[in-house]
Amino acid sequence: MRTILALILTASLQAQLPGTKPLEPNADFSAAMVAGIDKMALRLIEQSKTGRKPTREKLKAALGMVDERVSFAALDLMGDTSSPALLHETENCRVFRVRWPVFDGVHGEGLYVQPKGKPTARVIYLPDAASTPEKLVEGFLLGSGAEVVIPALISRDSEFSTNDKFGVKTNCSHREWIHRQSYELGRHLIGYEVQKALAVVDWFKAQPEQVPVLIAGIGEGGMLALHAAAIDERIESVYSAGYFAPRESVWEEPIERNVFGLLRDLGDAEIASLIAPRALVLQHLFYPKLVVSMEAPKGSRAIAAPGRLTEPSLASFEAEIARVKQLAPSSRILTATGETSNDQIIRHLLPSASLPVPSVASVSLKPDPTRQKRLVRELEAFTQRLLVSTETERNEQFWKKLPQKSLAEFEAHTEKERERFWNDVIGRLPDPNVPMNAKSRFVRETDKVVIYEVTLDVWDDVFAWGWLCLPKDILRSGRREHADGGKRTFATTGRRPVVVCQHGLEGIPEDTITTDASQRAFGAYQAFTLRLAEQGFITFAPHNPYRGMHAFRTLQRKLNPLGLTLYSVINGQHQRILEWLKAQPFTQPDKIAFYGLSYGGKSAMRTPAVLKDYCLSICSGDFNEWVRKCVSSDMPMSYIHTHEYEIWEWNMGRTFNYAEMAALISPRPFMVERGHNDGVGTDEWVNYEFAKVRRLYNKLLIGDRTTIEHFDGPHMIHGVGTYEFLKEKLGWK
């Protein structure tokens, strides 16, 4: 029979926490959170249209154009005894299969139309990714007297989007396949293909006889032509069809068009404004139509990111052109439709050139069946080599500049690195800027722990949410003063350390508390939020919004063009959580620790690295040679082989791997929890990366503040060495 004291205690616990308003239950706080962040992201995208300041250098940086092109004296003819380089000849010109060097081991390939007389102009003509150079060869090109190079693009086929040794096909396009590998390393497929076009411009401009240089493109080629001309002023005129449009919905397009920070500075109008006052033709025609299927053919793995290409309305197309003219009044733009003649287009682009305008006739040329594989594998090999060079780059830019003889000097230096990581890599939103509006409700209790649900407002439409576990021995018994459920009291016996316990992918706070062994969540989390509270810690299990499959993954797609990531939001939510926890009468403000599993372990690297109010961090089931895991085509567990298309963070490989993030956590205590059978990585790579952390702490003479625990188990909270680490470092016996 329950005692009177127990009844009084239960009555007191059913009230909300002191200083909070009553919280109404919600069937799915997680979905509400994702929806709110989505609303904020769309609002920020719309707001980005004002205040953009486009420059060529910003565009080059956004496209990852950091690799020096190699020079060459002549195009290489591509042919052999069974397939000659010469494909076609007329009285005016010859058509050859050619290639040219761009970077070490990377070539452009395509067709070369060589006039038999002095060229009237030099043209780079870029097809759509669904087409081939051979399909663009028409009587117009053959009779124009122009010297023309038609590069082949990485296609939207998927035949080579895999590592051949694994023997598993995927539904990932070749374009997405290269994007997946290059994005983390600060490169971009768009940048690679612009470089291939500009390498031809280099060659054109090295010729003794100078004539106008024109770049033209259709569909994906229209995008590349626009970008190339915006970057390189040596290009005199530009024709772009099937691409130009308002770009604020770029997150709906195929993922290989995801350019980090693009909309912060550059929409299509801003890019076109960089071409002024050179001649530009924008044609509302030939837009590719595409829906990226989320399903894979039988025998293939479904990993492709969703995306679609559609034709914009003529009104929106013209509205974007009006923005160009407002940004650059000197713009010379011809707005072309299907009614615009070739003669009009040519006279606008090359008014001083005397090009004949022959009738357009089809020419039947057979595409090179082996070319696409070469193009894909060359870029893949180049990108895989960057795994070595970017590590060297991190060593030069981070480790060699890191003071390690004085903690004071070290902390002063890493403060600047922390700002760089937060602002340039993770992306930083303004600090929480609305009233906290804390709300709470009693959820349930065990014999040792009381559990409350808490929400805190962060920004307009965005809130933080989590479950708070309070050990009962910290609570004084309450006193029910009104039988009708009125005023209740709440008091504590003292302050305790706090452990913030972070769930992983598709999780919710309750997953880290449940003791039901039949639930999958228990197998991974082992109720660690509850178990730590039973040992006397105050614990808080916040919700991070990586839940809802495509609903949350498209958040990353919406945030990236703004120079932001999902962790821009998550870190803001944790700023507010820390603010609230530090203000509670039962917490020790200087002893708030972070402990996360899986995606929560990913959080354990990115959140305490920037939020110094976390006094220590434990990364469980995630610490890795992270850049390799995101980029390597040789590792079966690499993300380029999975459906987690939101995982890549722009330029991480050149800036901060996990050891560098741990350095931003230092000199605070840091621990790794690693199961030998955890498929997220291998012991060898985990230990390789952690060795850098161990060395740093030892160099700073604080080697006792970091450790790694290996256990013979899978992807789960082990809760042995980590619990002891928390007790020791938080001073809780």
Task: Characterise the protein shown here.
This protein has 733 residues and is α/β, with parallel strands linked by helices. The protein folds into 2 domains: 4-46 and 416-476 and 496-729, Alpha/Beta hydrolase fold, catalytic domain (Rossmann fold); 56-353 and 371-388, 3-Layer(aba) Sandwich (Rossmann fold), CATH 3.40.50.1820. It is 35% helix and 19% strand. The protein has 24 helices and 26 strands. The strands form 5 sheets. The chain has a 10-stranded mixed β-sheet, sandwiched between helices. Strands 2, 3, 4, 5, 6, 7, 9, 10, 11 and 15 form a 10-stranded mixed β-sheet that branches. A hairpin with a 3-residue loop joins strand 16 and strand 17 (449-459). The longest helix has 27 residues, at 371-397. The protein is elongated. The chain starts with a helix and ends with a helix. Mean pLDDT is 93; it is low at 1-12 and 477-488.
